[in-house]
Amino acid sequence: MSAPTGAPSSARILIASLVGTAVEFYDFYIYATAASLVFGPLFFPAASPSAQLMLSYGSFGIAFVARPLGSIVFGHFGDRVGRKSTLVASLLLMGGSTVLIGLLPTYDSIGWLAPLALCVLRFGQGFGLGGEWGGAVLLAVENAPPSHRARYGMFPQIGAPVGFIAANGLFLVLGAFLTPAQFHDWGWRLPFLGSAVLVLLGLWVRLKLTETPAFAKALEEAPPPSVPLAEVARDYPRQTLGGTFAAIACFALFYLATAFALGYGTTALGYSRTAFLGVQLGAILFLGLGIVGAGWWADLASPRRVLMAGCVMTVGVGLALAPMMASGSLTIVGLFLSLALLVMGFVYGPLGAWLPSLFPARVRYTGTSMTFNLGGILGGGIAPVLAQSLAQSGGLPYVGLYLAGAAVLSLAALYPLRGGAATSVVMDTAP
What we know:
Blueprint: H1 10-37, H2 39-43, H3 49-80, H4 83-101, H5 107-110, H6 113-141, H7 149-177, H8 180-187, H9 189-206, H10 213-221, H11 228-235, H12 237-246, H13 248-266, H14 273-300, H15 303-325, H16 330-348, H17 351-354, H18 364-381, H19 383-393, H20 396-414
Helix pairs in contact: 1-3, 1-4, 1-6, 1-7, 1-9, 1-13, 3-4, 3-6, 3-18, 3-19, 4-6, 4-9, 6-7, 6-18, 7-14, 12-18, 12-20, 13-14, 13-16, 13-18, 13-19, 13-20, 14-15, 14-16, 15-16, 15-20, 19-20
């Protein structure tokens, strides 16, 4: 694909979609890690360690409520004003919220204002991410040749393991060089404050972009919709509902293998924080491998077919969760996490090409962002809290059944949407 004069190269477009998403997910994941490790006793009143962990996970879930709201607002401007400016705004909002979390006083200092401020800033994180993922994906796929849409669409997805490695790698380094008391008192703040550097990097890349060909073509053909959300709800309810439930499996699988596994592994299973973070850091490499493999396969077959295969594999992962996590061996736990995140690549990677194919360019930002983020509420927002509750009341087998059930729901949503956009709209991206 040869870019027009003055247009950014394919390499810059793909790097911008990856870097921006990596920055956003770094911010998101450091909260998940801190919520599992320190936020309970720092920001919530003392009751019991389990109650504090549940409250901490509850604050984590606030972002999943904010994400669909962010997708509506940023989707509105992304479909009316353009992809570039919306992506810059979402990056600034989430990055600013993250830095402020690193400056928050604790419950011992300001009482109930501490958890309130934490929840407000967590809402800001989620609101920003609600507009981030959809815009980054559209930046990639709306500039992709028809035969490479899944491979272009996988670049924002690769930002997820990159951001996770950066976040957990930093926590691992801090754990190696700081005492537990130092980490608890001030060390956990450093990853949040360091987000400012990453946001500046993301802005430097994104400010050099131009609008996508598909958005420019849509403006030439008709004025932008007055209310993109209303058009999506009126004309594409089946695509919105199907896309939402199709995304459940990837969120449930990821947050059970990361946030829940870390909290459960370092409390109920008794593994050290440093050792468990090291295992997760190795396992996340398999997520990147799965995303790349799924992207190539999806271009050869179809994104929907690969997503359905990933859902079937996720059922198997759910059945393996209890015996492998409770094995008493950190090596076997690491093998399980590696398997789970490898499979997650097949229910996550192709979403970047498949969800945009459900909507035309004039409302694609809104439709794609909404389906992905509503799926995040159902699949990820409640996952750590529900899994913690299930593990306490019934044990790990119930957590595994929960994961398998989420995969079955996604499989059922994917099945009737045969051919993705072929049943409704044409993917009008650049040649």
